[in-house]
Predict the structure.
Amino acid sequence: MPIIGGMQFVERTQFFNGERLFASDLQGLEAFSREMRWLHNQSLHQPGIGSGFAVAGNVGDRQVTVSPGYALDSQGREIILTEALIQPIPPVADNGSGRSVFYDLTVSYPQNTDLTPSETRAGICLPTGVVRLREEPIFCWVRITDDPTNRQPVDATLKQQIKQGLFIVLAQVEIFNCQLKQPVSIAQRRNARPSKHPRIACGIETTPTWVGPAPPNDGGSAPTQVTLGSVMYSATVHTSVGGFQATPSYTARLVGSRTFDFGKTGTATEAGGTFFADALISIPSNSQKTPQTPKEFTIQIFPFTQKLSGFAPQIKDLTDAVHQWQIAWMGVES
């Protein structure tokens, strides 16, 4: 069973009159409250910007201005900037080929080693100790690739940090001759509050594995027209690329030709011909036999045929035709 929030167990701290308290007791109490808050954030929100953290910069600027803001990382930790910050852009002329360089500005939660003491006190018969640490977010410029169709971080470690939601992308800049070539872009930002709009994704199952009736052993012909509902084929459609968190509402359609030729095999009953085939589609409701999940669903089709020329198609001819069809699907997650 996975460990919730990385905690092995949950303990409540209690005090009693006359108890001798140590610094670790009070720090443990503060850590418990903090980690429970992080667990709340991690459970009910996604990594991203809650409010603020606006980034502004115009053509020719050598710096950007970041406004105060609040963000969450994938561990539920709060990233807070309390006052506006001037952030110089990377001092680069070009990408080495005379073209612009692209960077993402990211922010992350500070580690203990990054914190600056803001108050110290002398201990009683003990050395001076730190009583307050100032939390300030860590900003990082991440170089990204020049490919406009697939801008990805060049550094594999930073790419993984962004993918895991530990580094939050605030903006993207294009730099040429050590200054902004275009205004700052904020299209790359992600909101910590889930979108109120439904998530819609689509794709194509290019090589579905169709399961259907086996051809008759005697090689006999099917009727001139396969009646609707007389045969059924099914396939599993994989939808992982949709990135759904919950099972969406699926729709699907068949992609491919509807007119097919089958060749002459030497006997009169198996001579060639041309036939038309199409099918009605059914996506069974969720059940143990045909479960729908965020990553896959089952489709059933009920084909029917019409002879156009030559002899009637056999079941094996219909099966060959069905295996040429692809499945275009769409999922809507509310």
Summary: The longest strand covers residues 296-310. The chain has three domains: 1-44, 47-180, 199-333.
